[in-house]
Amino acid sequence: MFGLEKPAGRREPGGSGGFPKMASVGDFNVLSSSIPATKVELSVSCRNLLDRDTFSKSDPICVLYTQAIGNKEWREFGRTEVIDNTLNPDFVRKFIMDYFFEERENLRFDFYDVDSKSPNLSKHDFLGQMFCTLGEIVGSQGSRLEKSIVGIPGKKCGTVIVTAEELGCCRDSVLMQFCANKLDKKDFFGKSDPFLVFHRSNEDGSFTICHKTEVIKNTLNPVWQAFKISVRALCNGDYDRTIKVEVYDWDRDGSHDFIGEFTTSYRELSRGQSQFNVYEVINPKKKGKKKKYVNSGTVTLLSFLIETEVSFLDYIKGGTQINFTVAIDFTASNGNPSQPTSLHYMNPYQLNAYGMALKAVGEIIQDYDSDKMFPALGFGARLPPDGRVSHEFALNGNPQNPYCHGIDGVMEAYYRSLKSVQLYGPTNFAPVINHVARYAASVKDGSQYFVLLIITDGVISDMAQTKESIVNASKLPMSIIIVGVGPAEFDAMEELDGDVVRISSRGKFAERDIVQFVPFRDYIDRSGNHVLSMARLAKDVLAEIPEQFLSYMRVRGIKPSPAPPPYTPPLHVLQTQI
């Protein structure tokens, strides 16, 4: 990290050449109210930029824009410094961004040759731009994306290299233990039953609960069990952010009595057991009323241990590929595809629910698959020429090679199949699950992970076989996403999801939870904004994948491969505006 680095989103006074050093982040994103999975730092370098200056070389700056999900509007996220007189800049100032695997973050890098001190970009010469997604950068080999700069017809605008580096603080967890002394007695017949509630502060000054300890019964001097919490959840990676701790006396009816509170920060806690980490518990009401009030007891930090976890991005950076397979329900209950009431209706003006679910999930996952070749299967249809029923047929008509190029290739094959096969039944999931499981069983070394997306209109016919397939697949490097479309009851799918009760077959329980089910109807945007529906759907179905992926790697003891050596730009003298 460089000394002059500031996270994007905070303005600094002054700024080089009249430029704000970092632009403020756009409006709050409705989808990103959860804690970001992690933060990544983007470094930008260019090679062979256009030369727009007559007597010297260009003086480039890079401006990063992000795109709002609903209205597709581009908003400035931040700017690098200006580097004088070079066509091969390696910008020092970085962009720090929240990274969510489950969201598609569209990025645009614009390059300008700066001709004056004006912060207004229209006053400078445009040198071209590059579009990509954050997933594309992270998913590239070594998290290093090299792409051509475009935007000026008939001109070669050079190339841009963007490298993503995960920030270390985001993968730390802390193991802490607290005790308390002489807490206020709140119960009439016995002593208090104390517990602690931890809150992290937000940018706007509000607080979000992030941990509750267990209740220790009938004592004013409790010693709570040690607990583990990620630094992200505790303070969002900001070591100086306020952490508020409240002390309560537990009551059976839920009306817990407030004993008092204190504030601290990650930086203070990290000093470990010391005189600095003994806190007076203060009850503001009591303090206001009683002149002689000292405190309502003390809370002491007994231990503080930092643990660094390996992250999903460590594996991606080390070259693990995510293989995406689609399986589409072609059973007759979907309705005749030529009728507007059918879930498979091919409306020339908008995607049907199958198309939307496929695109929403596929467009995010494709960034993590280097060859962009996806097997696409169908089930529950009668196939030409003899009308045999198949529960795992290739949408492109080629059983030896069911791969389609890119998500658009999958969509094309889906539309072609609708015209050639007859919708039939029953709805059997086991064959397509076993199809992917065969591939997953052949690579268990952590170099590949498989995600199967099943899109279905509902009632499953082979429940026992499907459960068995899922229990067997839970030992393999794979996850299953099921999206239910249409109005059917999806109770059976909830059972497969295993969030409430772990799925079992013949007395054997699944080794880990690998199924995520969502009904598409829960995501239909009332205003008819399909972009928003698709973003919400993708967010929910993909949010569990990184944890499922990590649970497989942990159980198998697979460590990430070392990342390829970082890119080191050729040396040349830099003159930077200060």
TrEMBL record:
Residues 20-147, 156-279 form the C2 domain. Pfam families: C2 (PF00168), Copine (PF07002). SUPFAM superfamilies: C2 domain (Calcium/lipid-binding domain, CaLB) (SSF49562), vWA-like (SSF53300). GO terms for biological process: cellular response to calcium ion. PROSITE patterns: C2, VWFA. GO terms for cellular component: plasma membrane. The keyword Manganese does not apply. Keywords: Calcium, Metal-binding, Phosphoprotein, Repeat. It comes from the Eukaryota. Residues 323-524 form the VWFA domain. GO terms for molecular function: calcium-dependent phospholipid binding; metal ion binding. Probable calcium-dependent phospholipid-binding protein that may play a role in calcium-mediated intracellular processes. Belongs to the copine family. This is Copine-8.
